Amino acid sequence: MLKSYLKIGWRNLLKDKTFTALNIIGLSMAFGAAILLSMAAFFDLSFDNFHENGGHLFQVYTEQQYVEGPEAGTSQPTPFAHALKDEVPGVERISRVLEDGVLALHGENEIGIDALWVDSDFFEMFTFPVEKGSTDSFSQDLGTVVITPQAASKLFGTEDAVGETFRLLIGGEEKPFTVSAVTETQPQNTSLGFEMAIRFENNPEYLSTKEQWNAQYHEVYVQLQKAVSVAQFERNTQAFITQHYQEVIDRAKRDGAQADADGYFRSIKLLPISDIHFTNFKRGFANVVRTYPYFILGIAFLIIFIASVNFINMNMAKSASRLKEIGMRKALGARTQQLFYQFWSESFLIFTGALVIGIALSVSLLGSFKSIYRTGATLEVLLTPMTLVGGIFLVLVITVLVGGYPAILLSRFGTVQSLQGKLLTNGKNHVRNILMILQFSMAILLISGTLVFIGQIDYMRNKDLGYDKEQVISFPMNGKKDSYAALGLLRQELKGQPTIINVSAADSNLGTGRDGSQSSSAIGFDYKGRIVGTNFLVVDHQYIQTLGIQMVQGRSFESWADSTGVLINETMVKALQEKDPLSAQLDITGEFPSPVLGVVKDYHFQDLDRTIQPLTFFMSHDLALTYAYVKVAPGDMAKSFDLVAEAWSKIEPNAEFLGSYLDENMDRTFRREKETASLIASGSVIAIVLSCIGLFAMSMLVVTQRTKEIGIRKVVGAKVGTIALMLTKDFLKLVLYGFLIATPIAWWFLKQWLDNYANRISIHPGFFMAAGALVLLIAILTVGYKTIKAATQNPVKSLRTE
Amino acid sequence: MLLQLNNIFKWVQQGGKRVFLLKDINLQVEEGEFISVMGPSGSGKSTLLNVLGMLDGFDEGEYHFMDESVHSLKEKHRAELYKQYIGFVFQAYHLIDELTVYENLEMPLLYKKIKGSERKALVADMLDRFSIVGKKDLFPTQLSGGQQQLVGVARALITKPKLILADEPTGNLNSKQGEEIMELFKKLNQDGVTIIQVTHSEKNAEYGSRIIHLLDGRKVEG
Question: pTM for the complete prediction?
Answer without folding.
Answer: 0.75
